[in-house]
Amino acid sequence: MRDINNCPIFLRLGARLRGPKESTKVGTLRRVLIHNVNSFNTPSRYSSILSGVPGYAIEDVKLSDIYAQHIGGAAADSTKIQVPEDETKYPEPGMFGPTPSQGFFLRHMKTWK
Fold first, then answer.
1. Which of 45, 57, 61, 97 could form a disulfide with 52 if both were Cys (CB 3.0 to 4.6 A apart)?
2. Phi/psi class of residue 18: alpha, beta or left (left: φ > 0; alpha: ψ in -120 to 50)?
3. SS3 call for 96
4. Distance separating alpha carbons of residues 40 and 68, to the nearest angstrom
5. pLDDT score for 113
6. 10 Å Cβ neighbour count for 77?
7. pLDDT for 38
């Protein structure tokens, strides 16, 4: 990927719950393998995002052979950014706004054992 406008890798577990209340529940996102990805000139405001929701983690993700080159230039105070949860919104990378990280922003994850 070259000169993309958003984050190179985006995994989002949401909780939109748009069905009947008695039968609708948060789903799962697990057993994902992402391999051999190269990304160049990604804007500094977006890192790759892997985000579950509170109480529901993304599970068993394996990333290998990943190269992500960012443009850079973020201000020093960008590390203080609080990224909103917004678990009921439609999942798309711009929903989080700028992230406090470069490369990857990971939240609500369980690792492989």
1. 57
2. alpha
3. helix
4. 6
5. 61
6. 8
7. 93
Query: What gap in Å lies between CA 92 and CA 86, rounded to an integer?
Result: 11
Return the structure tokens found at 99.
């992230």
Residues of the chain with pLDDT under 50: none
In this predicted structure, what is the pLDDT of residue 64?
95
**Beta strands in 6-113, from DSSP E residues, in sequence order:** 10-12, 30-42, 48-51, 58-70, 104-107, 109-110
- Cβ neighbours of residue 62 closer than 8 Å, sequence gap 6 or more: 32, 33, 34, 35, 112
| Mean pLDDT computed over every residue of the chain | 86
Lookup: tokens for 3: 């000169």
Token pair belonging to 110 = 């369980």
Helices (H), the chain: none
- Residues making up the chain, counted from first to last: 113
Q: Say if residues 91 and 14 touch (Cβ distance below 8 Å).
A: yes
Separation between Cα atoms, residue 80 and residue 62, nearest integer Å: 28
Decide: 26 and 85 in contact? Cβ < 8 Å.
no
pLDDT for position 112:
64
